[in-house]
Amino acid sequence: MNVIEINQLTKFYGKHRGIENVTFSVEEGEIFGFIGPNGAGKSTTIRALLSLIHPTSGSATIFGKDCIKYGSEIRRDIGYLPSEVFYYEHMKVREVLNYSASFYDNVNYSRIQSLAEIMDLDLNKRIDDLSYGNKKKVGIIQGLLHEPKLIILDEPTGGLDPLMQQKFFDLIREENEKGATILFSSHILSEVQKLCGRVAIIKDGTIVRVENIRDMQKHNYKKFTLEYKGVIDVHHFNLEGVTNLTLDKNTLHFLFKGDINRIVERLQGQSLLNMLVEEPSLEEIFMHYYQKED
Amino acid sequence: MNVFKKEMKANIKSLLIWCCAQVFIIFAGMTKYQGFADSQVDMNALFAAFPKEIMIIFGMGSVDISKVAGFYSVFFLYFMLLAAVHAVMFGAVVVSKEERDHCADFIYTRPVRRFQVISPKLLAGVINILIFNMVTFGASVFFISQHNHGDGLVDKVSLTMLALFILQLFFLALGALFGAVLKNTKMATSTAAGLVMGFFILSVAVDLYDKIAFLKILTPFKYFEGAALMINDHLSFTSAVILLIVSFVFFALTFVAFNRRDLST
Predict the structure, then answer these.
(1) Distance of CA A151 to the CA centre of its chain
(2) In this predicted structure, what is the pLDDT of residue A217?
(3) Residue A121 pLDDT more than 60?
(4) Mean pLDDT of the B167-179 span
């Protein structure tokens, strides 16, 4: 079953494009990554899912129900962490969290306490005395306290130190194991790589690709590093499937997608000092996607 | 209920300040009346020496201010102004403050419809203007009785406060509509403040120039007259009905507009 289904979702702000024909779906129980550079339309998509904004055209359903029509009903089971965390400044952390909890039925208030302990957050501080990272923690707790079935995270880790990030990821995995579906938006690919099963890549408001993260790394691309003894003829590797070709002194780097034998053929008779064939990092694949069209 | 409570709590300080200001105005005004009365000067004769325009601007165009009811009726203009500013600001801010404070993502992603957030906010607004009105009433009766041999003119003041409340309701609705329609709080409050000022200037202008008297339908400040309320015990039924209908329409439009609104982060 698909928890989220987005179909040709488009949002224009006047003439300014937000997103255009965004289509993808998130299955129940998965951790789905949503990556793209800043301004690509990640937040716009998410805000439309939460009916904070109204799409120009297209539709989206969550739990099989239309996002706009059944917004309030759907949101009972959604936990959302916005990218920019702002809360009622004059309130104490505890007050904000209790206020948040007051909108849900059957909230276990002791969960606020236990989550705060995990995240190492002082509930008695005022919101305006908190650092950015600590505000983010408030955001995480308010997003999780009602044990939502769908957790939407928009750039969740900004401002958290590595230790906290780890705790946060553990928390998310735990929720996922308990059955929660997670939509994880980020421009930091290593964290998406760590957590997510599938990923949608968005650029300039349109989805470039939806892919299984392992397929994406394993089957499609190899990262080659060739160290030569002498002069390198760059044109030698000027064949289809080679991208991101860079020359650094006597070392050649490129990404290759296709039949590996064709590279092996090219290597015959070459005098190499060293050769590396690696799985490319998501960053490199990502860069490649984005350079393709430029 | 949670939103209502939060709004009441958030506004208690400012309400207190508004009420104090109002009590002070009434106190200072009535003390001045005592000063005039004690000085044995014929006030009507004294003020008759002033240019008519000045008298109109200060709301003392055509009343006998040597009587306490007449003197007090002049206050109505200032009550209207103060109450209008209070109500219109409340409405404009209460509807749009989450966007201003970047909390919209917080509250509108809760499992509630937008009207379920806006309604308790507006209810808090109605309670706030009602408290403001009641404080005005209490202070008025108290200070009038101090200068009127213990008679607080409860009936007359009640009628005046009823008119004031209808106006407050109108301005609350107007402010809320601005908050829902305009881009942000700042634009909503400044437009609202400008309009209140415009209404006031127009209300003075129609008194000064008979030729444009027909324009008085455009300014809510001309719907009720202090003198009619305090001296003739007359509250214009037509005015009340028009203002209430317009307020209702504004409230309805607020809900419609806010429901369609794209919330900013």
Answers:
(1) 12
(2) 63
(3) yes
(4) 97
CB atoms within 10 A of CB B1: 7
Structure tokens at B14: 């400012």
DSSP structure string for A145-162: TT--SEEEEESTTTT--H
Residue A187: the pLDDT is 83
> What topology is assigned to A2-216 in CATH?
Rossmann fold (3.40.50)
Chain A residue at shortest CA distance from B98: A88
Residues in chain A within 8 Å Cβ distance of B104 = 52
Q: What is the 3-state secondary structure (H, E, C) of A202-262?
A: EECCEEEEEEEHHHHHHHHCEEEEEEECCCCCHHHHCCCCEEEEEEECCEEEEEECCCHHH
Sequential DSSP letters for A84-126: S----TTSBHHHHHHHHHTTSSS--THHHHHHHHHHT--TTSB
Nearest residue, CB atoms, B110 vs list A47, A75, A90: A75
List of chain B residues whose C-beta atoms are within 8 Å of the C-beta of residue A78: 109
Interface size A-B, in CB pairs within 8 Å, comes to 64
What's residue B54's pLDDT?
A: 73
Would the CB atoms of A87 and B103 count as touching at under 8 Å? yes
What is the distance between the alpha carbons of residues B23 and B140, in angstroms, rounded to a whole number? 8
Q: Which residues of B touch A (CB under 8 A)?
A: 2, 6, 10, 101-106, 108-113, 116, 260, 262-263, 265
The string of pLDDT tens digits covering residues B71-91 is 888 888 888 899 999 999 999
Other beta carbons within 10 angstroms of residue B211's beta carbon come to 8
> Which residues in chain B are closer than 8 Å to A104, comparing Cβ atoms?
110-111
Q: Looking at residue B209, what is its pLDDT?
A: 85
Q: Which residue of A has its CA nearest to B99?
A: A86
- DSSP for B73-117 reads HHHHHHHHHHHHHHHHHHHHHHHHHHHHTT-HHHHTTSSS-HHHH
Q: Give B262's contacts in chain A (Cβ within 8 Å).
A: 13, 52-54
Q: What is the pLDDT of residue B35?
A: 81
Q: What are phi and psi of A179, to 5 degrees?
A: 120, -5
Predicted confidence (pLDDT) per residue in B13-34, tens digit: 999 999 999 999 999 988 888 8
Q: Closest residue of B to A96, CA-based? A: B106
CB contact (8 A) between residue B111 and residue A13: no
- The reported pLDDT for the residue numbered A215 is 73
Q: Indicate yes or no: CB of B105 within 8 angstroms of CB of A52.
A: yes
The pLDDT value recorded for residue A70 is 93
Confidence label for B62 from pLDDT (cuts 50, 70 and 90): low
Q: What is the pLDDT of residue A294?
A: 43
Of B101, B111, B112, the CB nearest to A86: B101
